[in-house]
Specification:
132 residues; 3-stranded antiparallel sheet; alpha+beta; 3-stranded mixed sheet
Length: 132
């Protein structure tokens, strides 16, 4: 008689206990990971705000500053030694570790004029355009 080299496990084995343990572990792991994902999303917000600034005027922007709304002092010039010429755009990243979205925005032009916009939500802003 030939011996069967291939054998299948008995179909009557009870798998319900190990599967219940797996589901329990999965549910506990998910419950523990959920607050971490929320904290991570909030910490990303605190690390940087990114948007695009466009100069749609006829004058160079020589200074670009932001400040959280309610602060009575402008932060440093984001452009530094650069200028934003008419028709140009640039990406701005604010990495100040604050958990705020509302900022005031200020641009100074090379003719001495300035433009200030108050209470701009930078968390939802994609592009900010200065117009004549």
């Amino acid at each position: 008689m030939m011996k069967n080299l291939y054998s299948l496990p008995s179909l009557t084995m009870n798998y319900s206990v190990p599967i219940a343990k797996i589901f329990q572990t999965l549910m506990v792991t998910t419950a523990l990971a959920l607050p971490l994902s929320v904290m991570t999303a909030k910490s990303v917000l605190a690390k940087s705000l990114e948007f695009r600034v466009t100069n749609n005027t006829a004058t160079n922007i020589t200074t670009f500053q932001t400040s959280p709304t309610g602060i009575n002092d402008w932060e440093e010039d984001i452009l530094g030694i650069d200028i934003l010429r008419p028709g140009e755009s640039t990406n701005i990243i604010i990495s100040d570790s604050r958990d705020v979205c509302t900022y005031d925005i200020r641009a100074v032009f090379d003719d001495g004029e300035e433009s200030i916009k108050y209470k701009v939500n930078l968390c939802t802003l994609e592009t900010f355009t200065f117009n004549d």
